[in-house]
Amino acid sequence: MESEEALKYYLDEVKDSQNDINNIEEDIHIPNEAEQATDFLQNAGLTDLSNLYQEGKEITENVIKDSVRQRNLTEKQAQTIRSRVRTLNKTLRSRQPRRKQRQDIRDVSWNVETSSTGTRSRSATPDSLDSLDVLNDELTSDEDQQLNSLNPFSLDSQQPGVKTKIKWTNSEPWQHRKYRGDRGDVAHSGSENVILKGYQVLTENGTLPRSTRERSGSDPTTEIHLQPLKNRHSAEISRNKLTNLHTQLSRSHTSISSKNNTSSKIYITNTETNESEAVSFEGLLKENEIEDKTSISQKFENEGVCIDQLTDSEYQYLKPLLYMELVAIFDQYKIVKSYLKRKASKNKGGNVFGVNLSTLVMRDMPRPTDNSMIPEIFQTVIKELNVRCIQEDGILRIAGQKQKLETLYNEIETKFYNNRKDVESLLNQATVHELTGILKKLLRDLPDPVFTMELFEMFYKTSLITNTEDKVKALNLLVLMLPIEHRNTYRLLLEFFLNVVNNEKHNRMNLHNVAMITAPSLFPPRLLLPKDNNKLILKHLSKEDLTKQIKDAAVCCCIVETMLKAGDKLWSVPDYLAEQAREAQKSAQIRRDLSKDKDKRIRSGKTKLARSSTQYESGNKNLPRIKRDFFI
Amino acid sequence: MASRKKTLLKVIILGDSSVGKTSLMNQYVNRKFSNQYKATIGADFLTKELTVDDRTVTMQIWDTAGQERFQSLGVAFYRGADCCVLVFDVTAPNTFKSLDSWRDEFLIQASPREPENFPFVLLGNKVDLEPRAISAKRAQQWCQSKNNIPYFETSAKEGLNVEQAFLAIAKNALAQQNSTVDLYNEFPDQIKLTNTQKTSNNGDSCAC
C-alpha cells in the first residue's frame, strides 16, 4: 500500500515537472545589436539618449559627455555607454542615408574636402563663404541633435538667408568646385592618388587655416562660435575615420587620457601608433584594467555602504548605475547577455508553496510583524533551524522522510494563513531534515526563482568571469539589483547557510557541501535547459545533454560557493556608486523643484533664455540643469 | 561463451543522501575509503572490468546525487541501465523508508521493458556502525515483498561484503542483458520467477 501511494506521488511529480516545462514562457526573439543597445541605455537610465535614437537622431559625443558629466559617471561607465551609442549611430546611418542636413559621415567628409581645396585655391576663389557654409552646416546638424545645447546667440545671429543657402548647396556643386581648384594645380596632381594624399595632410593640419579664415570672415557669427567649433571639429575628424578605427580611437583615448590628461591632438596621434601595433594596445588596455581593479577592490573592501542604508529614492538612482557597472564587467569578459527573455511566472495558485515571494509578502501584510520584506514562512522556518539544530550532522544534505514531509507540506499549505499556531507547533516538532526539506521545497517551488527570471541568466553567466575579484563584484552588483523581497530573502538564506558552514565541526557541512546542496534550489535546473531540450527530456537525452547538465550543476555550485565566500560583501554598495546615486538623487530633487518654477516661467515666455544660460555654466557639475528629467 | 565480445553493463546506485553510495563505489573500484564528508554533484561513473563466469565484462557504475533532486539529471542516467542498486544506511531508518520511492522513481524514469522483472539489488550499508536501526530481518522482508530482491549487508569503510555484492550485481545485470538467452542456468534467477501477481500490479500502476 505504501509503495502505491509513493508511486502515485511520483507520478504527480513527474506530471508537475512536465507542466513546469511547458509553462516556461520564453520569448525567443533575439534582438539585433541596435535593440540591445537601446535596451542597455534604457536600463541604464539614459532614456534621453535612447529617445534621441528613437527619434532618428544621432547621439553625438557632446551629448554623451553632457550626460556623463551630469550623472558624475566614471570613465569606465562612460566607455560602456559610448560603445553602445556607436552601434546606434551606425544603425542610424545605414538606415537613413543623407536625409536633409542630418549628420552623415559622407557629408562631413565632403565638407572637409571642400575646405581643403578651398585653402589651396584661396587666391583664386574668395571662399570665405565656403568655410561659412561648412561652419553653418555643422551647426545646424548639431542643432538637430543636441536640441537643448543651443547657445543664446545662435538663434538670434543666424540669418535665415544663410540657412537657406546651406540647403541649396549639396554635394554636387562642391565636387564641381573641387575640380576647378585642381585644374589650377594640374601640373602637380595628375592622378587621384596625389589628390588624396594632399587631402589627408590638409585635414590633419586643416584646422589652423580654417580657423583663421573663420575669424577673417565677414559674418560676425563665426567669431562667436569659434570656441565650441574647435571642439566639434576635432570630434568631427575622429568621426571621419572608419567606424572600426573609431572604436579603437575612443577606447585608447580613455586608456591614455586617464593616465595623463593629454590634449586631444596628442591622442589622435597616439591612436595611429596603436593601430599598427594591436598587441601593445591590448597590453595598455589590460594594464589599465588592472589598475582600475585594484583601486575598486580597495574601495570595495574598505568602505562600501550597506544597501539598507540607502533610501528608496536613492536606490532608484542606484539601479541604472549598477546595471551599467555590470554591463561594463560583462563587456570586459566579452560576455554577451542572452536575450532569451522569460516572463516572470505566475503563481501556481497555492497558498504557500508555488507562490512568488512578492505575493507571499503581500499575504503577510494584514498582520505585518516586521518590515523586512521577507515572507513569514521563510522567517519562521529559518529561525527554527538557526535556534534548534544548526549543529545537526548533515544538515541540509540529509533528506527528511518523504511521507512525513508530504503531510507537513499539506498542513502548512492549508493552515499557514488561518491556523498559525497549529503550524508553529508542527514546525516545533519537526525534525531538522524535515525543516530543511520544507525550506528546499519552498525555494524550488518558487515560480520566480530567488534570482528572478530577469537576472537569472546574468547570475549564471558570471561563471564566465575568470577573475575572482571581478566575479564577486559582478555578483555583488547582481544581488543589489534584485527586487527587495528577493534580496532580503536571499540575504536571510545566505546568512543561514553561512551559519551552517560556521558549525562545520559539528555538522560536517563545509562550504563546498552547502553550496552543492543548495545550488539546485537556487538555480532551478528547469531554467538552465533550452526549451527544446526540456520538451525532449522525458523521451530522449543525448550524451552531450547529459554532460551539459552536469556541467551546469557544477557551474551553479561554483557560483553559490563564490557567493558564500563573499558573504557580507554582497550587500554593500561600492562607495563611489552610492555617492553617484546620492548625487543624482539630490540634483534630481533640485531639478524637480526648479522645473516647477520653470512651468511658471514658460507661461511668461522666458524659458529660452533660462535654458540657454544654464547651458553656458555647464562646467559646474553641481549646477541644476533644466533639461528633461531623464529619470522619470 | 568466452569468445563473446566485451559486454558493457550499466549499473546505477540509488539511495538517500549520505548512505554511502559514493563510498561503496570507491571501495569497490579503487579499494579506498575516505572519511571525507562530501556530497556528490549530479552524477558520476567509474568503470571496472571483472570476470563473471569466464566472461569479461566492463561494469559502468553510476553514482548519483542522493539529493532529492538534481531532478532533470535523473532521466538521462537511468536510461539503459542493466541493474539498479538500492542503498540504505542500517543506522538511519529514514533511508530505509525511502527505498520504495527510489525504486518507483527508477521504474518510472528508466521505464524498462519489463518493470516487474527488472533486476534490483539492495545493500544495507554502514554495518560497522552502532546502533543499528534496521535489522537484517526487516530488510529481507522488504526484499521478499519486492519479488525477492537479493540483499547484502555491507560496510564501505571496512570493505565488508562489497566485492560479493558487486559480483551479484554484475550477474544480475548480465542476466538482464541476456534475459532472452538462457545461458546461465546456474544463476539463481529469483528475478524471473513467475510469481509476479503483486509486482505486476505495481508495474501496471507505473505505466499509467
Which short descriptors sum up this protein?
heterodimer, A: 632 residues, mainly alpha, two-stranded antiparallel ribbon, 32 helices, 71% helix, 1% strand, disordered C terminus, B: 208 residues, alpha/beta, Rossmann fold, six-stranded mixed sheet, 6 strands, 35% helix
Instruction: Please provide the ordered H/E string of secondary-structure elements of chain B.
Output: EHEEHEHHEHEHH
Q: What low-confidence regions of chain B span 5 or more consecutive residues with pLDDT below 50?
A: 180-208
Provide the helix percentage of chain A: over 70%
The tally of helices of chain A reads 32
**What would you report as the Rg of chain A, rounded to the nearest angstrom?**
31 Å
Instruction: Figure out the total of helices of chain B.
Output: 7
How many structurally independent domains of chain B? Answer: 1
Subunit organisation of the chains = heterodimer
Commentary on this structure:
Chain B: GO terms for molecular function: GTP binding; GTPase activity. Chain B: InterPro entries: P-loop_NTPase (IPR027417), Small_GTP-bd (IPR005225), Small_GTPase (IPR001806). Chain B: Pfam families: Ras. The complex is a heterodimer of chains A (632) and B (208). By secondary structure, chain A is mostly helical. Helices cover 71% and strands 1% of the residues of chain A. In chain A, helix 14 (243-257) packs across helix 15 (264-276) and helix 27 packs across helix 30. Chain A is globular, with a radius of gyration of 31 Å. Residues 20-27, 107-300, 533-539 and 610-632 of chain A have low confidence and may be disordered. Chain B is of the alpha/beta class. Chain B has helices at residues 21-30, 71-78, 93-97, 99-110, 136-145, 162-177, 197-207; strands spanning 7-14, 43-52, 55-64, 83-89, 120-125, 151-153. The A-B interface holds A 2-4, 6-11, 14, 17, 394, 397-403, 433, 437, 440, 444, 508-510, 512-513, 516-517, 520, 525-526, 528-529, 537-538, 541, 545-546, 549-550, 553-554, 557 and B 16-18, 37-39, 41-44, 66-73, 75-77, 79, 92, 94, 97-98, 100-101, 103-105, 108, 202, 205-206, 208.
